């Protein structure tokens, strides 16, 4: 038994286990980040709805619909009043956008959630979420699936992206060396 090979095998086994743990821990944080992002998104949505409700109240108190108030302010010659029409339009668009994002992410399946999340990601909300993100150990099915996926991805990258190509190179080098040795022996015979 070659002690160098058994040591190399032990190190490789340890590396596999370490990569499994790292993959599981890293990937299991994705559902937690999405959860914290959704909480922050909900806060933004609540605030946007409040702002929109203020505009709707002002319109109702004036005997107008919000759409009519927006069109009247947007048509006003006074630049300040004119810009207010844009602000109200932006509030409507923001509420619609945040509601669509929240609904899509919440109703996405386990398998589609990461893609739906990325499609509806608001960079400012994501950055703010990352700024206060607290890692956690998710104990949900989703957390388990992500952890297993992380284990598979990192060990797969190691085995098929590093170990296998290096082994192929080593076998090729050994064959070339064996071929040179055989030629040298044949030449000396």
Structural features, described:
Helix content is about 85%, strand content about 0%. The protein is mainly α. It has one domain (about 5-189). Helix 1 (about 5-60) packs across helix 3 (about 80-105) and helix 1 (about 5-60) packs antiparallel against helix 6 (about 140-189).
Question: What key attributes describe this structure?
Answer:
mainly alpha; 6 helices
Question: What is shown here, in short?
Answer:
This protein is an all-alpha fold and 189 residues long. It is built from six helices and no strands.
Number of strands: 0
Global Rg:
30 Å
| Structural domains: how many | 1
Q: Counting H and I runs of at least 4 residues, what is the number of helices?
A: 6
What helical percentage do the residues reach? Answer: over 70%
């Amino acid at each position: 038994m070659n002690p160098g090979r058994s040591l190399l095998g032990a190190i490789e086994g340890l590396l596999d286990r370490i990569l499994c743990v790292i993959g599981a821990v890293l990937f299991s944080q994705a559902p937690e980040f999405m959860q914290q992002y959704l909480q922050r998104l909900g806060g933004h949505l609540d605030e946007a709805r409040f702002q929109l409700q203020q505009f709707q109240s002002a319109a109702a108190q004036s005997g107008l619909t919000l759409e009519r108030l927006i069109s009247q302010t947007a048509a006003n010659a006074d630049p300040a009043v004119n810009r207010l029409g844009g602000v109200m339009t932006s509030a409507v668009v923001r509420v619609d956008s945040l509601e669509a994002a929240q609904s899509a992410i919440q109703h996405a399946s386990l398998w589609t959630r990461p893609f739906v999340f990325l499609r509806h990601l608001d960079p400012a909300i994501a950055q703010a979420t990352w700024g206060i993100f607290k890692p956690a150990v998710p104990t949900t099915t989703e957390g388990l699936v992500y952890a297993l996926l992380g284990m598979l991805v990192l060990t797969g990258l190691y085995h098929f992206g590093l170990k296998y190509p290096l082994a192929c190179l080593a076998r090729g080098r050994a064959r070339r060396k064996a071929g040179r040795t055989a030629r040298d022996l044949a030449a000396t015979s």
